[in-house]
């Protein structure tokens, strides 16, 4: 299978807008995003990779508070230092108060840890504006028979990491959503947004590039966000399943095999900039849908009526 952008099936939605971005465009740069105050953001899986850079983009955009969560305290300490540096620059440039940071060592596989994260956020600020359910993994590597072959398992027989991947990628999002939806619902003066890390792999039925456990977990996350949006829209809560681009992270940097050549080409901050745009105000017309950080937001907004009328960017069985 050819995994280039132009060769992916249309139903993947990679080119849903005519313009495809691999770098942060001016229209979602932090210089174009003004966040209301107060603005409290929670990011899970913040210690490394996409969660780390999503946190930094919210800091650059001037959120008032960030709760960062990870399994590794030293990673959170490093992120806190970077947020503090950004915060001081914001203040020096006339951007208001310094950003408050709450560090919570927590594992999304633990009901108790996720509940404690919510309790600490509630106790400190009494509100939450945006929750980024970002923590995720891919199946453990196998030993390929040749350098041309992927070191990721192919098919259901090779993939022995099913339970762990589903527990983190799907159940972790469920735990975070279950814990934070009540606080989101109570924060009536905010965007009341939850964004779950999804993937174009949600649309894949082959494991040539990403293992089946990963694909299935992301497909389920997409449906879960639609359910959250549907069940809690009367409370003001909106939910999105986000494709965060193809990025070199600690999770992806050691992927091997010809299928991966040239794929990991997106900017590490692009997903964060898109999250800021997506969540800085209510976007009920997009709630419950799959979105990609590679899309151009101005072109996406022009398709609003088409999206709503056709109920696009959701799973539906063709009959």
Automatic annotation (TrEMBL):
Claim: Zinc-finger is one of the keywords in the record: no
In its UniProt record, a GO molecular function of this protein is: oxidoreductase activity, acting on the CH-OH group of donors, NAD or NADP as acceptor
- Pfam families, from UniProt? adh_short (PF00106)
Which InterPro entries does the entry mention? Answer: NAD(P)-bd_dom_sf, SDR_fam
Q: Does the keyword Cell inner membrane apply?
A: no
Query: What keyword terms does UniProt attach to this protein?
Result: Oxidoreductase
Which family is this sequence assigned to?
Belongs to the short-chain dehydrogenases/reductases (SDR) family.
Name this protein carries in UniProt = NAD(P)-binding protein
Which species expresses this protein natively? Paraphaeosphaeria sporulosa
């Amino acid at each position: 299978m050819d995994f280039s952008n132009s060769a992916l099936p249309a139903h993947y939605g990679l080119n849903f807008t005519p313009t495809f971005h691999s770098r942060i465009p001016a229209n979602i740069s932090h210089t174009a995003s003004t966040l209301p105050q107060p603005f409290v953001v929670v990011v899970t899986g913040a210690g490394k990779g996409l969660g780390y850079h999503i946190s930094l983009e919210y800091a650059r955009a001037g959120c008032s508070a960030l709760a960062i969560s990870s399994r590794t305290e030293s990673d959170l300490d490093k992120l806190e230092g970077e947020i503090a540096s950004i915060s001081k620059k914001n203040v020096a440039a006339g951007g208001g108060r310094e950003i408050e940071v709450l560090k919570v060592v927590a594992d999304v596989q633990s009901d108790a840890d996720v509940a404690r994260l919510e309790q600490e956020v509630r106790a400190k600020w009494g509100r939450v504006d945006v929750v980024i359910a970002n923590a995720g993994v891919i199946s453990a590597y196998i030993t390929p028979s040749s350098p041309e072959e992927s070191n990721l398992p192919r098919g259901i027989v090779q993939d022995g990491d099913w339970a762990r991947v589903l527990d983190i990628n799907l159940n972790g999002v469920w735990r975070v959503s279950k814990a934070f939806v009540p606080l989101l619902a109570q924060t009536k003066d905010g965007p009341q947004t939850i964004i779950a890390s999804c993937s174009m792999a949600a649309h894949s039925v082959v494991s040539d590039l990403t293992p089946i456990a990963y694909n299935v977990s992301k497909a389920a996350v997409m449906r879960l966000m639609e359910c959250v949006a549907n069940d809690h829209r009367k409370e003001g809560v909106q939910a999105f399943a986000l494709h965060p681009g193809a990025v070199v992270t600690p999770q992806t940097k050691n992927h091997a095999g010809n299928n991966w050549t040239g794929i990991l080409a997106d900017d590490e901050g692009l997903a964060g900039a898109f999250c800021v745009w997506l969540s800085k105000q209510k976007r009920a017309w997009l709630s419950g849908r799959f979105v990609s950080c590679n899309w151009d937001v101005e072109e996406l907004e022009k398709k609003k009526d088409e999206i709503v009328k056709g109920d696009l960017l959701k799973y539906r069985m063709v009959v």
